[in-house]
């Protein structure tokens, strides 16, 4: 991150990064390795190493189809005011700050201002760090439209999308209210964890008095990528996760399964999506003492290659009938769910231990879809009922958000279409 | 309570930079002819010159009145540079002081009370002294009066508490405990600026340094609520608490208080709330955290109210927000009132504590901008 307010050399550096960011942003969607020109000569680096910036403005919000970054800080907020104007003013401030941070700039007057008597606008821990492909993605929860007491605080009840339902209770859920729901959410993904945390921290600070963090989750290690040509990442159970995820470059699949279309509406959400977040705790210790055979039976894929049962290679077309009836992959497959596909973007988490010496670890599941009713809800009903994996996992947090379309330009802001 | 840290109000530096050496006449290197003659009567206070060079200043005081008088030298904001009490009728005395360039007031206080009869004087010299908005000097003086009043009113409240301890009256002592702390909590940044008092009266067990004896309010709190008995040692600690707080009461007038110090002090009172009260750490045995919480907010609000005229002119949006957020916190706290105090903090649920925490954040974040609003002079 560069501090605009400091010296002219850093301002020059900033222009340099801006330029690199545009070039790399385009490349990032398609490949994992790009050649950096200019000052870096002919060195070839991975996208993550390059520290590039992902464009903030566009038809869709970044952080959905964007190649999945390495780290996550996800925060859900309660809106603490009833003042619509205050909320709008904050969303505008947030948009401004997000546009700057994602491009590797500091917030407001910078981290080191010339005003000694006031705390600096930016908290400073990202100074000197690259943009690290930071994306900030906002979502609106049911509480924004109607709070728990049924009150329409912001005159938005009539604009609540039909698809923004209260998620049904699934068998086996053990949801903690303090880790669930939220009126707003911000998903911060970056290749550098400090950049992601810095972004959430500064947005939370800007929002004080208007919003308050309800819960937040750090994630390390993506569990699903949107770049099929890259090696499929593994989850905490040691299995490849997201082999058949929707690629960020598959426009047709995105259009069909992820982006809210014109007919589905409402208008303000067209080009947006729905995000389901589930904190899924894994019973790590019992899983680890489960035989390899049982582990593979549970998933329906082999552990080393990730090939579906009866097949040789990871990307071979699965034969569902070769798997046990309660195998996870079989039950989650589109063919078992009326064709439902989700764009998964989850991360592994380990929040230390739980006081009993057990890792408080698992999967922070994030999935984007054009409609949860024939997306996550359909799939999860199927899984909750009979998935063999349920013996080793428990859903402990849950939230659903409507994710508005992208911010078009610097005059646009998060939620403009909703509030206008 | 706060662990060792840089003091907000920086009284210590004030005491070292402007050393009052009252009474050391023989050490004076100022010639008698350079002395400022101060002639006090029962209703006048005349000075022979209103301007003198900065550095060593000698005041030749003569009390021509019939009442015992006092002479004070005040820096802006009524900070005491030096003072001499008990100047009898028809007696003379000499006061020496080191002063930096700047504006001062010399006050005679016939009968040794009140605001005094004042003369404006200035010390001239190279040390450049920034001209301050007179409204800010007024704010500082009013805040000092507030801090002094809080200290003055704390002593009887503390004595009520310590008397109960010395009588071995557990019930009465518990009842008097929280009220005895209110004045201290309201003006804690001033109290803490005297680095040595806070560790004696307001330290928690976990804040003790190796070899440090645990004294003060919280030691007694533990006896009353946890041990449920009053020991002979507690009775000694009660006396010591009164003694230490009298020291505080006496020194409030010398604290260096500045407009930015007031603003930062207000913000730090909210920090105290956020780190000590919201968590229930401060009053872990008595659970009277909300009494402290309220007192911290009141102290912050007093500073803010005094600085508001200047701040609202320079940053109207900020004061609008602060007005709103102070009101919100006050309203939230009102919901926890019980009798003439507050509910026990162990009855406040985690969800409700979060609401308190959110409200404090909502207030403290803009409050952190107040110092810049009262100090920055547009270039």
Sequence-ordered SSE layout with sheet pairings:
The complex is a heterodimer of chains A (420) and B (379).
Chain A lengths: L7 H23 L2 E3 L8 E3 H4 L20 E9 L4 H19 L32 E6 L1 H4 L38 E7 L2 H15 L3 E12 L28 H8 L14 E10 L1 H5 L3 H8 L28 H5 L10 E2 L2 E7 L5 E11 L6 H11 L6 E11 L12 H4 L1
Antiparallel strand pairs in A: 1-2, 3-5, 3-6, 4-5, 6-9, 7-10, 7-11, 8-10, 9-10
Helix pairs in contact in A: 3-5
Chain B lengths: L10 H7 L18 E5 L4 E3 L3 E3 L1 E9 L5 E7 L3 E9 L3 E9 L2 E7 L8 E8 L9 H33 L3 H17 L1 H6 L4 H4 L15 H11 L4 H20 L7 H19 L11 H26 L1 H19 L2 E2 L2 E2 L7 H18 L2 H6 L4
Parallel strand pairs in B: 1-4, 3-9
Antiparallel strand pairs in B: 1-2, 4-7, 5-6, 5-8, 8-9, 10-11
What does the model show?
The complex is a heterodimer of chains A (420) and B (379). With 420 residues, chain A is of the alpha+beta class. Chain A has one domain (58-420). Chain A is 25% helix and 19% strand. Chain A has helices at residues 8-30, 47-50, 84-102, 142-145, 193-207, 251-258, 284-288, 292-299, 328-332, 376-386, 416-419, and strands at residues 33-35, 44-46, 71-79, 135-140, 184-190, 211-222, 273-282, 343-344, 347-353, 359-369, 393-403. In chain A, the strands form 2 sheets. In chain A, strands 3, 4, 5, 6, 7, 8, 9, 10 and 11 form a 9-stranded antiparallel beta sheet that branches. A two-stranded antiparallel sheet of chain A has the order 1-2. In chain A, a hairpin with a 5-residue loop joins strand 9 and strand 10. Mean pLDDT of chain A is 89; it is low at 5-46. With 379 residues, chain B is an alpha+beta fold. Chain B folds into 2 domains: 18-124, Cupredoxins -  blue copper proteins (Immunoglobulin-like, Sandwich), CATH 2.60.40; 134-375, A middle domain of Talin 1. In chain B, the strands form 3 sheets. A 5-stranded mixed beta sheet of chain B has the order 3-9-8-5-6, with no helix packed on it. Chain B has a 4-stranded mixed beta sheet with strand order 2-1-4-7, with no helix packed on it. A two-stranded antiparallel sheet of chain B has the order 10-11. In chain B, a hairpin with an 8-residue loop joins strand 8 (102-108) and strand 9 (117-124). At the A-B interface, loops of A face helix 11 and helix 12 of B.
């Amino acid at each position: 991150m560069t501090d605009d307010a400091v010296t002219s050399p850093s301002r020059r550096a900033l222009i340099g990064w801006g330029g690199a960011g545009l070039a790399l942003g385009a490349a990032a969607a398609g490949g994992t390795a790009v050649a950096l020109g200019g000052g870096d000569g002919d060195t070839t680096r991975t996208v993550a190493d390059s520290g590039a910036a992902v464009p903030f403005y566009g038809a869709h919000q970044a952080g959905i189809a964007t190649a999945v970054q390495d780290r996550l800080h996800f925060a859900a907020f309660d809106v603490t005011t009833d003042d619509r104007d205050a909320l709008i003013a904050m969303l505008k401030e947030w948009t401004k700050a997000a546009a700057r941070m994602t491009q590797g700039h500091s917030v407001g007057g910078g981290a080191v201002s010339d005003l000694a008597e006031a705390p600096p606008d930016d908290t400073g821990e990202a100074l000197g760090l690259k943009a690290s492909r930071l994306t900030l993605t906002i979502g609106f929860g049911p509480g924004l439209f109607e709070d728990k007491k049924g009150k329409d605080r912001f005159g938005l009840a009539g604009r609540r999308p039909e698809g923004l339902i209260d998620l049904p209770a699934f068998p086996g859920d053990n949801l903690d209210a303090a880790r669930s729901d939220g009126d707003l959410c911000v998903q911060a993904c970056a290749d550098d964890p400090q950049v992601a945390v810095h972004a959430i921290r500064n947005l939370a600070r800007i929002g004080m008095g208007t919003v308050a963090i309800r819960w937040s989750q750090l994630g390390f290690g993506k569990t699903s990528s949107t770049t099929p040509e890259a090696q499929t990442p593994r989850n905490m159970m040691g299995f490849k996760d997201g082999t058949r995820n929707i690629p960020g470059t598959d426009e047709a699949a995105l259009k069909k399964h992820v982006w809210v279309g014109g007919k589905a509406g409402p208008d303000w959400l067209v080009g947006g999506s729905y995000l389901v977040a589930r904190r899924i705790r894994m019973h790590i210790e019992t899983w680890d003492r489960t035989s390899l055979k049982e582990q593979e039976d549970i998933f329906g894929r082999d552990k080393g290659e990730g090939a579906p049962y009866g097949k040789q290679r990871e990307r071979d077309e699965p034969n569902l009938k070769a798997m046990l009836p309660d195998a996870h992959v079989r039950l989650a497959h589109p063919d078992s769910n009326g064709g439902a596909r989700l764009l998964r973007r989850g991360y592994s988490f380990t929040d230390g231990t739980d006081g009993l010496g057990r890792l408080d670890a698992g999967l922070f599941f994030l999935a984007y879809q054009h409609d949860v009713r024939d997306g996550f809800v359909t799939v999860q009903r199927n899984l909750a009922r009979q998935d063999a994996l349920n013996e080793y996992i428990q859903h402990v947090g849950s939230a659903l958000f409507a994710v508005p379309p992208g911010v078009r330009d610097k005059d646009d802001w998060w939620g403009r279409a909703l509030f206008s | 309570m706060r662990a060792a840290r840089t003091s907000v109000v920086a009284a210590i530096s004030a005491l070292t930079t402007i050393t009052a050496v009252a009474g050391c006449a023989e050490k004076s290197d100022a010639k008698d002819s350079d002395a400022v003659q101060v002639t006090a009567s029962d209703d006048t206070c005349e000075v022979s010159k209103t301007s003198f060079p900065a550095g060593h200043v000698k005041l030749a005081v003569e009390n021509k009145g019939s009442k015992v008088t006092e002479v004070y030298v005040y820096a802006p904001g009524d900070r005491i540079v030096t003072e001499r009490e008990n100047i009898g009728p028809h007696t003379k005395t000499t006061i020496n002081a080191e002063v930096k360039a700047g504006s001062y007031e010399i006050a005679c206080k016939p009968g040794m009370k009140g605001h005094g009869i004042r003369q404006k004087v200035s010390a001239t010299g190279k040390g450049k002294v920034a001209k301050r908005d007179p409204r800010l000097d007024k704010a500082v003086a009013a805040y000092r009066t507030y801090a002094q009043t809080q200290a003055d009113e704390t002593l009887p409240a503390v004595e009520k508490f310590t008397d109960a301890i010395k009588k071995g009256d557990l019930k009465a002592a518990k009842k008097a405990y929280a009220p005895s702390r209110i004045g201290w909590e309201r003006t804690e940044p001033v109290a803490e600026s005297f680095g040595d008092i806070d560790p004696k009266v307001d330290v928690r067990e976990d804040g003790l340094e190796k070899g440090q004896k645990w004294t003060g309010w919280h030691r007694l709190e533990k006896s009353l609520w946890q041990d449920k008995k009053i020991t002979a040692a507690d009775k000694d600690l009660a006396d010591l608490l009164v003694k230490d707080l009298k020291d505080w009461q006496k020194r409030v007038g010398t604290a260096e208080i500045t407009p930015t110090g007031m603003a930062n002090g207000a913000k730090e009172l909210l920090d105290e709330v956020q780190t000590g009260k919201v968590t229930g750490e401060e009053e872990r045995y008595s659970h009277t955290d909300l009494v402290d919480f309220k007192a911290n907010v009141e102290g912050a609000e007093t500073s803010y109210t005094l600085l508001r005229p200047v701040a609202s002119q320079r940053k109207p949006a900020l004061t609008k927000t602060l007005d709103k957020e102070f009101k919100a916190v006050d309203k939230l706290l009102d919901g926890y009132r019980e009798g003439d105090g507050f509910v026990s903090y162990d009855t406040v649920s985690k969800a409700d504590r979060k609401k308190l925490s959110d409200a404090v954040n909502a207030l403290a974040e803009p409050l952190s901008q107040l110092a810049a609003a009262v100090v920055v002079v547009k270039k």
